[in-house]
Amino acid sequence: MKSLEQSLGVAKENRGLMYAMYFAFFSSGFMSQLFGAILPFMQEEYHLSYTLRGMLLSAHQAGNFFAVFIAGYLPYVIGRKKSTLYLSSGKAIGLLLMILTGNPILLTLAFILTGIGRGTQSNITNVVTAEISQKKASALNILHSTFAVGAFISPFLVMLVTKRSHSLWWVVVALVVEMEIIALGAIDNCNLSDKPTPRKTDKGRDYYKDYQWWLNTGILFFYLCSEASIMGWLITYFKETGRLSPTIAQISSSLLWIMILTGRLTCAGLSARMDKNKLLLLLGFLQTICFLVMITSQSKALTFIAVLLVGLFMSATYPTTLATMPNRYNSSTVATGNCIAIASLGAIIMPLVVGAVAEKSGIGGGIATISIALLCMVVLMIIKTINVLKTKS
Predict the structure, then answer these.
(1) What is the pLDDT of residues 112-140, one digit of tens each?
(2) Are the beta carbons of 310 and 293 closer than 8 angstroms?
(3) 200-209, 216-225, 267-276: least confident range
(4) Can you tell me the mean pLDDT for 259-271?
(5) 127 with 192: CB under 8 angstroms?
(6) Nearest Cα to 186, choosing from 69, 88, 64, 78?
(7) Could you tell me which of 241, 308, 317 has the C-alpha nearest to residue 277?
(8) DSSP code of 201?
(9) What pTM did the predictor assign?
(10) CATH number given to 205-393
């Protein structure tokens, strides 16, 4: 029976590197759901306002945004290994700061550092896994499955640890710090290149003059507005409104990732059988309807089901949007990279907007603002679909 690395076509000298990438991405997945789970407990201990909590979530996304640029430049100067180790250490440093202090400035710095670390690891794990495997699609699917498994476990563990005392939230954070130290040690001991790499030229095209490029960028912008806000504020919303019990809220956050994984696998099959633009519009419409049901239904059972369906229908929006972008832009790292960078601003802005509105109107009002982003996304999807149909006719 073939081992995993053999079935993926990974050379013997790269096997340690492959497992290091998988563990690092598992750790990133674990942390991705951690903040939404621990933020209510941090609020209890540090007395954080809605605005500050929104700012912290936005700071993490801002760190992730900056990592796209830093992690893309630094390897050309000091090599992949050093740049990965230096930038990824931001996760461990930031998480330690969260345990040690409730100072707003230091907490903001902590969330920025975790964003930089997470963004760096996301970039390097995807790139390296694709490079060292002969069966790239299979290797990347397994990689993203490790992320989903980490994201699934995280809220459950927070729920178990804090069941005895809410003040024990730091125990799970400390565990992630230990996981990150192990990941950094594994990366340091594998054969990741430590030499500066030659820069590849990519002139791109005049993408910024094309409304189709802006249309796709706009869809991703509003999608990331909703995704980042839902992931960051969901548990706080349910706990503080009492719409779901704290235990069920944590469970729903974990199950959300199971639905996301299920949705991605399902849409991978559907995309080969139906028009991708119509699939994208269907996904956008259904996740918006389910979100509105989630925030308006008085039934706890229906609210819980709506949460899971939101995860199912939002799962493939991001990759399907990129897949429907004109080929001339998909082949340009400049056009695609800038599309993702601009769209990522939505993930930075919206959690702060939710927090600011919640400060004045309550968490219910804050969460409701996400529906505006979803409706804007659907409108752009409709325009995109109409344009595609006109082009084909």
Answers:
(1) 999 999 988 887 887 788 788 776 656 77
(2) no
(3) 200-209
(4) 77
(5) no
(6) 88
(7) 317
(8) P
(9) 0.82
(10) 1.20.1250.20
pLDDT tens-digit readout, 287-318: 999 999 999 999 999 999 999 999 999 988 88
- What is the C-alpha to C-alpha distance for residues 222 and 344, in angstroms, rounded to an integer? 9
Residue type (1 letter), 120: T
Copy the structure tokens of residue 42. 């941090």
71 with 65: CB under 8 angstroms? no
- Residue 163 is given by DSSP the state T
Contact (CB, 8 A) for 111 and 60: yes
Backbone angles phi, psi at 74, to 5 degrees: -60, -40
Provide the pLDDT for residue 163.
87
As annotated, the residues of the chain forming the CATH 1.20.1250.20 domain(s) are 10-194, 205-393
Predicted confidence (pLDDT) per residue in 191-216, tens digit: 877 777 665 555 445 777 788 889 99
Helix, coil or strand: residue 30 = helix
Tell me if 58 sits within 8 A of 352, measured CB to CB: yes
Report which of 333, 326, 344, 337 is spatially closest to residue 388, judged by C-alpha positions. 326
Fold of the domain built from segment(s) 10-194: Growth Hormone; Chain: A; (1.20.1250)
Quote the CA–CA distance of 105 and 96 in Å, as a whole number.
14
**Which residue type does 230 have?**
I
Alpha carbons 80 and 74: distance in angstroms, whole number = 8
DSSP 298: -
